[in-house]
Structure formats: C-alpha cells, structure tokens
Amino acid sequence: MGPTSDLHPDRALQQAIRGTARAATGNLRWLREHMPPYFFVTMRDEEEALAGLATNLHSLQRNRHLILVEQEKELILARLDVPGSIYETLERNQDREASYAEITHSDAPVPGAEHPLEIQRFEFDRKADAEVAAATDAAIPPRIRREALAALKANYPPIASQECEKLLRLLWRNNERYVRVSPARRVAQLLWLFHQGRTHGGIFLDVGASGPGAPQETRVLFAVGNPPHRGYLAQVIEVFNRLNLGVRRCYALTITTGVHPYFLGSFYVIRRDGGLVEKSSDLFSRLQRELYNTQILSSESATYRDFVVQRLLTGEEASLINAFIGFCHTSLAHNQPHRYTLEDVIRAFHSHPEISLKLVRLFEVRFDPDLPNREARYAAERAEADREVAAYNTGHKQLDAFRRSIFRATLHFIHRTLKTNFFVPEKHALAFRLDAAYLDDLGPEFTADLPPERPFRVTYFHGRHGLGYHIGFSDIARGGWRTIITQTRDDYVTVANTLFRENYVLAHTQHLKNKDIYEGGSKLSSPCARRMSGARSSSTSSSTRSSTASSMRFWTSSYRRTARLHTREWWTTTARTRPSSWDPTRTCTTG
Hints:
20% strand, alpha+beta
C-alpha cells in the first residue's frame, strides 16, 4: 500500500473531527435552549464534562449512554429519557452508596432522536456518623448563610433561629459543594424538608405544584430518617415507575446528623397519563403508602425482587407477605426447628403466589376501614380460603402437608388479629395485636413446648431489619426488652428459630415473679439483622458498620412509636371486626 492511500484514513478522520467540532457549537446552543437554567448552575465546575456532552451529544442516537465523568466519588451520565432509565443506572451501581443524586431532562428531544436528553449525576462521598459528629464547624461564608436563612424565612413557616443554624451547619458538614453552588431558595427548601423530617418522627411527604415554569410537573418532597444504606434511591424511583410517574428532575441527598443518616429528596414528576398529583387524589394516597412502606420492605428481600419488581404485588402487600413469613417461621419452628426452616417457609409463599395473594386479599377484606360490608365479605372469603388450603394438593404428599400447615397458620393469624396498623400510612414497622387463642388453634403439635398458661396479649411486629414479639400476661404488665443484634443471616435464623418460645417463657417467668403486685409480667424480644440478603450479610462497608448502632436504636424505637401513636387508628380499623370471644377485661386464661 502506497503512502497516498495511507493518507485517506487520516483525511477522513480529520474531516470527522472538524464535523464534530462544528456540531459541538450547535449542540451547546441546543443545550442552553432546552436544558433548565439550574443545570448549568450545578454543572458550572464541570467544564470538561459539558464540553464532552456538547461534542458527543449526537452519539446518543446510536449509543445507550455517554459517560461524561466516571471517578471513584462521582459519576455523570448522559442518555435518552426512556421509562426505567434512572432505575436501570441505579441498579447497575447498587453497591455504591450515593451521597447525592441529580437528574435533569431537556424539554425537547435530542436532535436526531425521539426522546429527550437525561443527565444523571451521582456523588459517592457519604460521611460517616462519627466524622460529622467530630467535625469542627467550618465558617460558612456570610453571604451564603445570610441568603439561605433569608430564603427560608421568606418562603416557609417560621423555624426557631437556633434550629435553622443547626440544620445549615449539618448540611454544610455533609455536602459543602451543594450549599455553595445551589441557589439560596433551593438550600432553604432542603433545610425546611430536613426540619420536617426531624419533627415528624423521621418520615415526611409533601406534594405541590412545581411552579409556572413547569405547569405539568408535581413537586414531591420526601424525607426519611435512617434509610437503608444501599439501594434506597433505586427503591424510591421504582415506586414512581410502578405508579406511572416519570421523574423529570431529582435532587436527592443522604446526610447524617452525627447519630444517624437522613434521606432528603426533591422530585419533580409528571403523570404519564396527564394531570398533576393532587393531595386529594387516590394516586397521592397510593404514593404515600408506597413511599412510607419503603421503610419496612427491604429491596434485598426475595419478596421484593420476585413480586414487587415483577409488578405482581404492591410494596405494602409484599411487606404483609414478609410479615406472614416471619410469623409462620417463628410460631412453628420453636417446636420443630429442623422442619420449619426460614428458607422453606419463604419457599412455600413464593412457590404459590396465587395462594399468597389470596391470603393478602383476605387480610385486606377483614381490616380495610374503607371497605363496606366487611364482616359478610370476610366470612365468605374466609370460607373460600379454608376450602382452598384444605384442598391444596400438588401430588407431593409430605410437601403438601407441610405447606398446608403454613397456610393454615396464616389463616389463624388473620382470624385472630385484633388490631393492626397496616392501614395507617405513617409507620416504621407493621404491628399486629393477636388474641392468644391462636395458640390453641395451632394445636399441641406446635405449642407443647410452651407453658400451659395463655397470655393476655401477644403483639407481633415486623420491619425491614427484623421482627419481634411483645407478650404480656395481664392488661397492666411490666418486664424487660431484649434486642439481639445478629451479625450474619445464620445468626438471625438461629435466634428466630426459638424466639417465640424464649420470649414466652421469659414473660411467663416475669408474671410469676410479679405475683405479689398488681402488674403482671411481660417481655419483648426482637432480633435485628445488619443485612438480610444472605451471601452479603457477613460483610458490610465501613460506613454501614459505623451506623449499625444508630440503625438498631432507630428500629427498636419504631415499635414504641407504632404502638403509642397509632392505638386510636388501630381501634378505628378493627372495632367492627373484633372476635366476639375477645374479652378486654380478662387478665389471663389457662390452656
């Protein structure tokens, strides 16, 4: 090949470079016309990334995404806006703990493509609790401080000045860059959201119109105290996707108070079927229930992956199935631990989603306060469920008998539940007050290892990090609280196998010790797991370990808040469905 032919590739390459340079000017002009002004504010220190975007914008016509920055603590992607695109990126980076996420869209399709531009920016620089607690206050520039506090005062209800200063200092310690580059009003919005989360028991949701500049967008503000360390933003985005809400803009931070973390998210969403998310709408109620339920349902659980992501169940229904699983395992395994293993109980529910769904529907028919004629409908549904469980037969005799016993235990659980907070939106755990007669329903096969005296009450609760029982042998009772922090899944399963029997015996022993005073005996036991994902449960990151203690404190306080705050709502929910045999004046019965 001669020297002349060698020049042709270079000439073509140089022409392509010149063409790209000419296109970059037009692309930059398009970006300034169709991207929101705030995009250029937050990207003002990313000139190289902006240059790369302007130069290669046209490549999105044929490429899935364009990596603008990929570093240890930062990732910036450009891609076309299609349903599920944000969730897909978060799933690919689920092992990285995001401290900040910013999603921005163009208001027009990318030239030559059918979809708008989507910019995804993630920072992975989460501060440990101890690091923030030990930090000395760096001086916040006077102008930034003055403008942020003035915007907070002008746009939101009054907050005590000392509280404002404290919140701003915490935000500065966690993410100085965000405070520096963001407009004062956006910093003020985050401070207000942070304050609302702290004053509403660690969870807060608010929706409203985005403003005249985006009439079709609804602003969703969501704060959560002590969120999961990994995958939480992906779980929140999955809720929006499942409810057919598209995220147009997102500014989400995870910060720490020095004791435990907070997730603070500002989402600007559109309904894909048109309209706004009104507070009075059914869509808002569903959004509220699903977002609050992210505190309870782990995205690492098999129920979430098999049922929720596949759109077979809602998040709330999946949490209820997990509660069924935990109850059946702890109620049946203490007398037969080698037969009723946690994995086999899980498999019983997951292998037959139609039965699992029927049990969920039966629970909802019995307790949904908005459902008319509940008693008659429950009686009919219960009879049908009894027949279906009794007739359960897959041709595997021993396995069928095993699974029938699990489904029957769930039926007893539903029938003997007296109160529940399931239909109360603001909760950190599911709680169920049970008539102790369910123990007689189970029969001696499962209760022979328990003291014969039956308690006045059994309260079962289930959350993201574990479960527990509160057993009392009289209406007014006192006793202790045991929290068992397990390090691995094997530890958790071993403790859960005998949890109910040990708690029952401890409460009964306390009751005997209290024989000379008017207070009966009670005991609460709760095993808590660092992670419940099996293989990864034995190893945690340093930031996960640093906040394990605060996570456990937050979880164990959830039951207190659930029982204390929602007693009235429980009663309203179940007043018409209490079994006629339940006697609120009795102190105990003998088995």
